[in-house]
Amino acid sequence: MTKPFDDGAHLAQARAIIRKCGWLVQAVAPHPGQPGPRVAYTAGLTDAGLPELIIVGLDIRLMQDVLNGAARRHLATEISAGDQLDGLASVAFRAVEADDTWSVAVARKLYGNDRVRLLQLVWPDKDGFYPGEPGWSLGDYQKLPAEDDAQVAKYRR
């Protein structure tokens, strides 16, 4: 039997990490055998008046590394929608506005729905096309999880 999720302890730990480091990276993965993308996002950048950052669909460790590098860059010079971020991985990421903040539950719980803004860092397909561009070949692969996705439901109490 798995241990029940302790929301209070998780948020207390999140606050401590944010106080120490300025942000944290929260990773969310589907349970083994369940469908759904892996997601990683920041929480804490809202304290600096910046949008939080999110990536969908890559290896968790890679997303953590990219988000940590992007967060450092974001604190030095604000990242805006349309910006291209080179040097974080073997491909350039592009920042796009993301209106749906359901996927960043820890940030929403820390700051409230009305304060959290979100930028998604998207990556190109093998031909160099980004989501939404003609030629993009991966369909909905980088789509943010919907409000009712089970993988993030435990963070939505």
Task: Describe the protein.
This protein has 157 residues and is of the alpha+beta class. The protein has a domain of 101 residues. Helix content is 27%, strand content 17%. It has a six-stranded mixed β-sheet, sandwiched between helices. It is globular.
SSE string, helices as H and strands as E: HEEEHEEHEH
- The residue ranges in which pLDDT falls below 50 over 5 or more consecutive positions are 149-157
Average pLDDT score: 87
Strand content: 15-25%
What portion of residues is helical?
Answer: 25-40%
Distance between the termini: 21 Å
Based on the structure, what is the oligomeric state of the protein chains?
single chain
Principal-axes geometry comes out as globular
Number of helices: 4
By DSSP, the count of extended strands is: 6
Largest sheet: 6 strands, mixed
Structural class: alpha+beta
Radius of gyration: 15 Å
Q: Numbering strands along the chain, what is their spatial order in the largest sheet? A: 1-2-3-6-5-4
What's the short version?
The protein is an alpha+beta fold and 157 residues long.
Give the secondary structure arrangement, pairings included.
Elements: H1 7-21, E1 24-28, E2 39-43, E3 52-56, H2 60-76, E4 84-85, E5 93-97, H3 105-111, E6 118-122, H4 150-153
